[in-house]
Write a structure and sequence with these properties.
Length: 172
């Protein structure tokens, strides 16, 4: 049994629990437990995000007193540039946070995110009508427009289909 059993938590609770875990092996175990358990896409995405955060944080050396303050200054400049223009991960998070409330259906996933002239465009899939089995779910693909800072400026539905429709790409 993994140290953190994601099936014992809602996705929101799981996200809170994940913030306290800095061990990649524990996070991988939690991902595998979720995959073999409830297999919720939003829970797996939360675990993957935390795993990426932990992986990005590991190779960075701590301050060793060697007097390399120039690196610190460039890091500060990088972070100020990033605050002016949203990076792809913060835009993705923004889309995930507003999609369900904006569209009014449960988010199934962010399927596309790209930079455009005046900001960002993302495509999300939402479950418009859940069914049993889930291969018969009716999904809607929505395009969401965001400005340079990652604030949503508009959205529209671009497609609607059954989850099991594997040949829908040919018709687009």
């Amino acid at each position: 049994m993994p140290e953190l059993d994601p099936t014992e938590h809602t996705v929101d609770e799981l996200e809170d629990e994940l913030q306290e875990i800095d061990d990649q092996a524990t996070l991988r175990d939690a991902y595998e437990a979720e995959q073999s358990g409830e297999d919720r896409s939003s829970a797996k995405e939360a675990i993957r995000r935390r795993l990426d955060e932990v992986a990005e944080g590991e190779p960075q050396p701590e301050a060793d007193g060697s007097g390399d303050e120039d690196e610190d200054e460039s890091d500060e400049n990088d972070s100020s540039n990033q605050s002016e223009t949203a990076d792809i991960m913060s835009v993705k998070e923004s889309v995930r946070n507003v999609a369900t409330e904006l569209i009014g259906h449960e988010l199934d996933g962010v399927t596309e995110l790209r930079r455009v002239d005046d900001g960002w465009e993302g495509v999300v899939e939402v479950i418009e009508r859940p069914s049993v089995p889930d291969t018969q779910d009716i999904l809607g693909a929505y395009e969401i427009q965001l400005d340079e800072g990652g604030t949503v400026t508009g959205y529209r539905r671009v497609d609607r289909y059954r989850r099991a429709d594997t040949d829908r790409e040919e018709h687009v």
